Task: inverse folding
């Protein structure tokens, strides 16, 4: 009786080991083969090509934003914000040109307009 039990449990043990081995061979995780999307790199020259109120990109903290849709809503006078279209504008954004930073709300808004990272000139 004990011998039968021993043989039976050994058999069950090895079946389980084999089953586990099979899952490793045949089971592939859902995200296998998924390639992470790389973010678009925008050069300073490309950035400079979007310098009008209707087509306005700004690079802030290394990230490029297409803020064209937001500009009509921006609370300052247009002549304060428009000269920064097509430019590296981190300092202007961080000081509002008067030594005061934008609020966290503005940061959240800005993030929605992210279109890529500022690259180096070729
Ligand atoms: C880089 C050039 C920019 C300059 C020079 C600038 C300057 C200003 C100024 C003068 C004001 C009004 C006065 C004040 O609130 O103190 C203001 C307010 C504001 N701006 Fe800008 N701005 C710039 C870009 C942006 C961008 C790209 C966004 C968002 C997409 C933005 C969002 C806001 C918001 C939400 C306010 C209301 C007050 C606050 O939340 O700080 N601004 N900005």
Result:
């Amino acid at each position: 009786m004990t011998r039968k039990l021993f043989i039976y449990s050994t058999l069950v043990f090895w079946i389980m080991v084999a089953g586990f081995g099979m899952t490793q061979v045949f089971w592939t995780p859902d995200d296998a083969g998924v390639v992470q999307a790389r973010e678009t790199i925008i050069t300073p020259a490309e950035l400079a090509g979007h310098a009008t109120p209707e087509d306005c990109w700004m690079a802030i903290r290394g990230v490029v934003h297409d803020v064209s849709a937001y500009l009509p809503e921006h609370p300052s006078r247009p002549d304060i914000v428009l000269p920064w279209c097509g430019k590296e504008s981190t300092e202007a954004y961080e000081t509002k040109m008067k030594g005061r930073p934008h609020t966290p709300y503005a940061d959240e808004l800005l993030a929605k307009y992210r279109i890529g990272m500022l690259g180096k000139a070729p």
